[in-house]
Design brief:
Length: about 140
């Protein structure tokens, strides 16, 4: 999944892209990201993350605002479309049983996609409602196919 642009949800910055080592099923690390060309050595010459796979997710920060990337990024594909971690993991929402493992921003984005409000409700209850909406959506898609 190389070449997905990485957008910081705190500042809206779009500075990194995924490398060939990016794997949505693994804990994020420095080797999974590189600066986009215009910001790297032949551009603004910003420093990028250490390519050491030991650099863990908590150390991955937006170079503009300093926000931690974990649970605070979204991916943009070559068609300039937003792609969630859940979609990257399964390609299809029915392949994502680990909703409880999503970061808050991914979780909120997925809930919003199905028209669910995330305010004033526990995450557990929202997870139940979200799974129900996903199943309903899948049935609608299967009936239309």
């Amino acid at each position: 999944m190389q070449g997905l642009r990485v957008k910081c949800l705190s500042c809206g910055g779009d500075f990194h892209e995924t490398t060939s080592k990016f794997d949505p099923y693994r804990t994020l690390n420095g080797s999974m990201f590189k600066l986009q060309k215009q910001f790297g050595p032949r551009g603004y010459n910003w420093e990028t993350f250490s390519q050491d796979p030991g650099l863990r997710d908590a150390d991955l920060e937006c170079p503009w605002c300093g926000s931690c990337y974990v649970g605070n990024i979204q991916f943009i594909n070559e068609h300039n479309e937003r792609v969630t971690m859940a979609e990257l993991k399964g390609g299809n929402l029915k392949d994502v049983p680990e909703i409880s493992e999503l970061g808050w921003h991914e979780f909120r984005s997925l809930a919003s996609k199905y028209g669910l409000k995330v305010v004033g409700i526990s995450r557990e209850e929202l997870t139940k409602r979200l799974k129900k909406e996903i199943r309903k959506h899948e049935k609608t898609q299967e009936a239309g196919a």
